[in-house]
Amino acid sequence: MIHTRRPALLFAMLLGFFLVSSGPIGALELTGAWAVSADQCSKVFTRGGRANEISFTALSARHGGGFIIEGNRVRGKFATCAIKSKKADAQSLNLIVACATDIMLSNVQFILKMLDDNSVVRQFPGMEGMESKYYRCSI
Length: 139
Hints:
The chain is of the alpha+beta class. The protein is about 20% helix and about 45% strand.
């Protein structure tokens, strides 16, 4: 009886893998550290501390800054944001994030347009022509 269940279990696991892995852009593809200049990655981010975590250097803002995406979190130098909702299409990811700083809480719309696997453009809703390009850092 056990041997007849193994193929069915294996099939179910593979089907689940393909259903989860196929589809539009998601936070998993964007996981990592993103800086405004690929040349500045080592000046913006560092790796260390507990669990070899990526963090910002003391002078990261002087080098253009950036953000870190980890699971359902987006971190900046001065704010940590929880992803409340996301909507993806073939080229962009629209996030609504709840951000907390030392002095306030706010909801922010975070739109990322994919250029390629290692570069995105952040667009700012309501600000025509306002955007920032970011590059994935290999830390």
